Amino acid sequence: MGKTKTVITVISKISERPVAQDAALVVIHGLDLGRKYDLAKPTLVIGRSSKCAVQVDQESVSRNHARISSQDGVVTVEDLESTNGTYVNDEPVKAKVQLRNGDLIKVGRTIFKFLAGGNIEAAYHDEVYRLTTVDGLTQAFNRRYFEDTLERELSRCSRYGRALSLIMLDIDNFKVINDSHGHLAGDYVLRQVSAAIKTKIRREDILARYGGEEFALLLPEVDLKGAAALAEKTRKLIEKHRFEFDKAVMPVTVSAGVATIASKSADPAELVREADLRLYAAKESGRNRVVSDS
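and the corresponding structure tokens:
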């Protein structure tokens, strides 16, 4: 037998590959969660009208809201002078914007994720699996994933006698933001708060959207003092952050409650309850503060 040569191939990142005709949009937040829209045609219109290829039946969506175009392997999105605008990765679309793999497109209160590349079915199924663990709006983990991880980490830390702390954070006066600026502004604030918190945490920390405007931050092997210090850094970060949506600047603050496992017999519900009680105390004592002791 003759020797065969090894063929060297260079694997490019998905975002660097030319967009194939089988690119797609996947709903990651809003109605029809997980639904995939193939971008096989040259143009596709998203809007409230039943004549749109992608119908989003929400009051915040215009009849013809945005257009997705595909030409020569390039996919772009443009806003069709909609009332509430179209956003890519939280930036308003003012002219045609070229889409890259993984970009998030917000139309009304619905978020689409743009998938490009060769094996679109594999990418789609990966994304659907991700939707079972990640909150589509904030890109933090969802409550289900948090509760599963909390139980696992509590068991591990109890077994090895290590600390485990939990921070419960809540956006102050969030209803006022929604009532004064609209739910689209509220969604923007939630996404920005989540993104800001992520800049302060370690890879092993778990940030989850616990519900509504409340976030949970699980800190393996961090004691009460360390968790309280992180909560205070986060509080200051949010207070100083500039939240501006549709030319409206909104002051945003958070309150936080911090708790740590007190014994090897502690259970997940006990840790959450303790952190929630301290969060409530922070709210009751004036908001925009951290409470870490009873």
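(Above: one complete record from the training split.) Confidence is low (pLDDT under 50) at residues 6-21.
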